[in-house]
Amino acid sequence: MANGVKAAWAAGKPVVNGWLAIPSGFTAEVMAQAGWDSLTVDIQHGVQDYMSMVACFQGMQPHGVTPMVRVPWNEPGIIGKVLDGGAKGVICPMVNTEKEARDLVSFCRYPPKGTRSFGPIRSGIYGAAADTNAANDDVLVIPMIETKTALDNLEAIVRVPGVDAIYIGPSDLSLSLGMAPLQDRREPEFLAVLDKIRTTAQAAGVKVGIHTMTGQYSKEMFERGFNLATIMNDSGLMLTAAKAQVAVAKG
User: Fold this and answer.
1) Which residues contact 19 (CB under 8 A, 6 or more apart)?
2) What range(s) does the HpcH/HpaI aldolase/citrate lyase domain occupy (predicted)?
3) What is the mean pLDDT of the chain?
4) Domain spanning 4-250: which superfamily?
């Protein structure tokens, strides 16, 4: 099964990404019917673990949504394991240097392009398990840019061969810049930082994604030229919708 995110980008289309913090295959199954292009299982800050990730993949699989994972850290063991489990993309937090970006690419690629260990226990259902060249071509490598150090090293990070996209974490980036950890910011100085990240990455042929809290802000980011936007997460969307309906009922 081809990587739907890569296909959308090749067609010049933006990608609307969902975020799964709830450790439930049923939640993933429901979310997968909402029209997302991709769904990312968050095993960094969500309450997911490896087995719930697999259950989420199983829940979303019949609906043609591209499965991705945000890993807890830039570490080869967990990165290889989520890929073996069927992830089509790896979003990795706190990639701050060219070396860390090169390490991430290496952990996601089989030799000779990387150092990923062979053992695709489940990912074979997405294609020929032994076709390591196809796996190397198919998997998206997406470092997160969320610190001032990463900004200082951005040019080098986006020019690392094998980096497909970068993903902006607005909360941590805000903290690193001395601001409150907020999302969907519209301060001109912060939007200027976002635009600089986007133009630097895209000049190197690298796509750019960002985490948002609303569909409206995601739409605005697409209009600014971003290639992927995530809208909140499953637990946040559930709570937002529930609060709205309870408020209506209570008058």
Assistant:
1) 39, 40, 42, 46, 211, 230, 231, 232, 233, 234
2) 27-228
3) 96
4) Phosphoenolpyruvate-binding domains (3.20.20.60)
